[in-house]
Write a structure and sequence with these properties.
heterodimer, A: alpha/beta, Rossmann fold, B: alpha+beta, two-stranded antiparallel ribbon, 12 helices, 12 strands, binds adenosine-5'-triphosphate, binds magnesium ion
Chain lengths: 239, 380
């Protein structure tokens, strides 16, 4: 089935997409049918209470899960039609991930973590190293390149993770609570770095509980009970 | 990817060491058992291995036996009669008889006397088995051989000139063999005449007849002709009789079963020890594998990464086990338990090591890691 592209100017788009998790005979509707468009040069903040479906939304955009209904488009690819290997490839080439708990590969040092996606892309080692160094420079972490993740602070680990997310020059960067484990100073460093990527044409989505991040957002999506909306739920308007 | 695999192994040092120790133990046990089995099977066919292959191309034995260590008696006249068969170049009588050896210390030991005819001594010892002395010295009066490694069995040296009694008759060791031994007995080589003399063996009987064949004939052809002409006996191509002997002794003595089950248990326990350690190492790193998947690694990549880790552990474990086996081999060789770590044995062992560790990696860790969802990394 070939479907008309839903949003040509989007980097990633959900079209009436829902997600229902089935475990045994119980099923949880984590995301109600929603339409979401992520465009270049935008930092989108995704805010909502715990369990509201933020991570589910991000996972759908990140092509790590399939939707229950609706369609997903990433960089012109109709995600619904791709198999798991093709999805992995799509993630590798188009999406950078930043996680709440950093998720650096523990046995590998900083630069090897950054090189990893390039190795998966089968870039020649010297070229990969060069690019990884560039990425480390962008996050100001060249002096820690030989350190193992456990030898780095949370903020430093997250900066390495950002370097890893941007080293493949993806058009979409997805962050799930990237600042939850960080102190205020690290929060602003990490967010400045993400913000600077937006200016070079990338689309960034950041899931957060953290109101401090609102100042960095170009756009805010509110998720509540599986519903996604551009406007805050009522109680928040008055606070 | 080799470097990444190596870093994963290095990071989980205790588990990696556990896996390698598992591989070493398992590989060493298998190598040791197979080494001992090759030694024992060589002993089983010792009578044939020690013989002179130029003059003992065919063994004629009684109709019933399939084991060269259990020979009935044949009529001596047959030795001359077989010479009339087409393709037979010459034939030689062989006597194999039990005797009791008594040493100056008073110690008595049952031995096996093997008599064949000079100058060839078709039943052996062949030149490769001679340590000291000349084969032709066996012709001298009271002259017999004894083996270097039987010194401990005899509690007596087997040096040239040693005097002993065989069934109460005096004898002198004039030839020292080395590793010319059989299964469950010490071999004393001498002439047919002296073997008869010491063992009180009837003049008109022999235990076997060795046959050499003329150029242009194959041993199989000549065997067939002999078997047709003399249906009351059976002629064997030398190597076939050896194989038959080993097959018979291995199966009837339970050596095959006991060593086989030891090897199988070593493989099974290795499989589980290595597999469970690999599994627990994989579980420790499950988050890393999940992250790799999320950022775009395929299951194929994860599988390769695990298999390379198991290959590195297997090779390291194999090399250590090889060193230990070499130590074991040279240690027991001093006592006469001689086997070689042949290239075939080593290659076989290495393959088994790879199969055990690769198989257990696939069975325990890869199966688990394949099911790790890339989405799992978003759950903390
Ligand atoms: N793999 C899963 N299997 C079953 N239910 C799931 C799964 N993942 C999420 N859910 C359920 O879906 C709903 C939305 O979960 P989700 O993780 O998207 O929320 P969230 O907004 O990210 O919450 P939090 O702020 O706590 O991270 C929750 O009720 C959750 O229990
Ligand atoms: Mg979440």
């Amino acid at each position: 089935m070939n479907k008309e592209h839903f949003c040509e100017s989007c980097i990633a788009a959900l079209e009436n997409t829902s997600k229902i998790y089935k475990t045994g005979d119980t099923s949880v509707t984590a995301l109600q049918p929603s339409t979401v468009m992520l465009k270049p040069n935008e930092l989108t903040l995704i805010i909502g209470p715990s369990g509201s479906g933020k991570t589910t939304l991000l996972s759908l955009l990140g092509c790590v899960i399939y939707p229950t209904t609706g369609d997903i488009w990433v960089n012109g690819n109709h995600v619904n039609l791709l198999n798991e290997v093709e999805l992995a490839n799509l993630r590798l080439r188009n999406i950078g991930f930043v996680f709440q708990s950093f998720n650096l590969i523990a046995p590998l040092n900083a630069i090897e973590n950054v090189i990893m996606p390039l190795r998966l892309l089968r870039l020649p080692e010297s070229k990969a190293r060069e690019k990884a160094l560039e990425a480390l420079e962008k996050v100001n972490m060249t002096d820690k390149q030989k350190n193992l993740p456990r030898e780095l602070s949370g903020g430093q680990q997250q900066r390495i993770a950002i370097a890893r997310a941007l080293v493949t020059e993806p058009s979409l960067i997805l962050c799930d609570e990237p600042t939850a484990a960080l102190d205020t100073k690290s929060v602003s460093i990490v967010m400045q770095e993400l913000k600077s990527l937006v200016s070079v044409g990338k689309s960034i989505a950041v899931v957060t509980h953290d109101n401090r991040l609102k100042q960095f957002a170009d756009r805010i999506l509110y998720v509540n009970n599986g519903f996604v909306s551009d406007t805050p739920p009522e109680e928040e308007i008055f606070t | 990817m080799i470097k990444t695999a190596y870093k994963f192994l290095k990071y989980d040092k205790p588990k990696t060491i556990g896996v390698i120790i598992g591989i070493v133990i398992c590989t060493f046990l298998i190598g040791q058992q197979v080494g001992i089995l090759t030694f024992l099977t060589r002993l089983m066919g010792g009578l044939i291995d020690n013989s002179d292959t130029d003059t003992a191309q065919i063994w004629i034995v009684d109709k019933i036996t399939i084991n060269v260590n259990e020979l009935a008696r044949l009529d001596e006249s047959l030795v001359r009669e077989v010479r009339s068969v087409e393709g037979v170049k010459n034939s030689y009588p062989v006597i194999v008889a039990g005797a009791i050896a008594t040493f100056s210390s008073g110690k008595t030991v049952p031995v096996t006397l093997i008599g064949s005819e000079p100058p060839h001594f078709s039943a052996g010892p062949n030149t490769g088995k001679i340590a000291e002395g000349k084969l032709s010295d066996l012709v001298l009066e009271y002259s017999i051989s004894a083996d270097y490694y039987d010194a401990s069995t005899f509690s007596n040296t087997t040096d040239l000139g040693t005097e002993l009694e065989l069934n109460g008759k005096r004898a002198f060791i004039r030839l020292q063999t080395i590793d010319a031994r059989g299964f469950g007995g010490s071999y004393i080589y001498t002439t047919v005449t002296k073997a008869r003399f010491y063992a009180n063996y009837p003049q008109d009987k022999v235990n076997a007849i060795n046959v050499s064949i003329k150029d242009g004939y194959t041993p199989e052809e000549v065997c067939n002709s002999i078997n047709k002409t003399f249906p009351s006996v059976r002629a064997w191509v030398t190597n076939d009789l050896k194989k038959s002997t080993i097959r018979f002794v291995v199966s009837s003595s339970n050596i095959g079963t006991s060593i086989g089950s030891l090897v199988i248990f070593a493989i099974i326990s290795g499989f589980f020890i290595i597999g469970l350690t690999l599994y627990s190492a994989a579980i420790d790193r499950i988050r890393d594998y999940g992250t790799l998947k999320a950022i775009g690694a395929t299951n194929q990549y994860i599988t390769k990464l695990i298999l390379i880790q198991s290959f590195i552990s297997a090779s390291t474990g194999f090399l250590l086990a090889w060193m230990l086996l070499e130590g074991f081999r040279s240690g027991v060789a001093k006592g006469g338990l001689i086997f070689s770590l042949s290239p075939a044995l080593l290659v076989g062992l290495f393959l088994i090591t790879l199969i055990i560790s690769g198989g257990s990696a696939v069975f325990f860790s890869i199966r688990t890691l394949k099911n790790v969802e890339p989405a799992s990394v978003f759950r903390n």
